[in-house]
Amino acid sequence: MDIEKTPFSLTGKNIIVTGASSGIGRQCAINCSQMGANVILLGRDKQRLDQTLNSTTTPLKHLTYSLDLLDYSKVEEVLKDIVSQKGKIHGLVNCAGISTTLPLRAITPRKLDEFLHTNVHGGIQLTKLVTKKAFISEEGGCIIFITSVMGAVGEAGKSLYSMSKGALIAGSKSLAIELASKKIRVNCISPGVVETPMSKEAVYSQDETSLNQIKSYHPLGLGQAEDVANACIYLLSEASKWVTGINLFVDGGYTAR
């Protein structure tokens, strides 16, 4: 089938992917490239960004920028450069984030600030900039936040991570209403446990019994980065033009338990 004739085509669309240096962000960038998009890869590690770039189908079409999303003035300069090279932006996939398992007694004000700044502030501030008239396409666009099932359900030791992801889920619904008049759709994707470098470093992955327990929570087994990336393709494409303000669970049945 001709990719340009499917409702899932991203041909001609300029899509920004944060956290594109590994895991879900890397796969989202690769899949967007496969669907015809001009992909702009953002991340902190230039070497790993280049590895992602070289894994795309058309690396010469894409751009990479190594930066800290909390450096807001630098981020705005990058957006100006993107628009000057590629034109205005059609989509943003907010993948950048950090995770941990930490009991309440170990949470400190510094740790709380770290998670809220990285998981919430960075994505919200980038969304604020991208949706400016100077940067967003006149046709409108799509904003996606990669959240987590932990933003909607509970688990021991996940309160810090959960509150940061839950904030995005709640905030995205109001953003969807606020930005609808600009033809900008805002949605979340909440994965269960996906096999990525981040999950392999998690506490539960270091112990076979704990890992098997986590696997048992997912009736369809642990996820792959492609599962989340494919959901992103749907939300970025015209196939979902009447979809906004949702939290799409891609979790192998985790929340069906």
Automatic annotation (TrEMBL):
Keywords: Oxidoreductase. GO terms for biological process: fatty acid biosynthetic process. It comes from Rapidithrix thailandica. GO terms for molecular function: oxidoreductase activity, acting on the CH-OH group of donors, NAD or NADP as acceptor; quinone binding. Pfam families: adh_short_C2. Belongs to the short-chain dehydrogenases/reductases (SDR) family. InterPro entries: NAD(P)-bd_dom_sf, SDR_fam. This is SDR family oxidoreductase.
